[in-house]
Amino acid sequence: MQRRIYLDQAATTWPKVPVAVAAAEKFIHDCGASSGRGAYASARSADQWVTAARHNLCRLLGGRDAADVAFCSSGTHALNAAISGLLHAGDHVVTTAIEHNSVLRPLEHWRQTHGVQVDVAPCDHQGLVPLVPAAQLMTAKTRLVIVSHASNVTGRVQDLAAWSEMAHQYGALLMVDASQTVGYLPIDIQRLGIDLLAAAGHKGLGGLPGTGFLVATPQAQAQLRPLMFGGTGTASEQLSFQPAWPQSVEVGNLNLPAIVSMAAAAEHWLREGETALATWQNPLMHLLKGLRERFSPDVLRIIGHPAEAVSLPVVSLLPSQWDVHEAAAVLDANFGIEVRAGFHCAALVHQAVDSHGTGGTLRLSLGHQTTLIDVDETMHALTAMFSGSREFGLFLANPPAAQQWEGRLAAAQSGRGLASTNPSMMRYAADSPLRRMHPPRKSTLNA
Ligand SMILES: Cc1ncc(COP(=O)(O)O)c(C=O)c1O
Question: Are 21 and 379 in contact (CB under 8 A)?
Answer without folding.
Answer: no
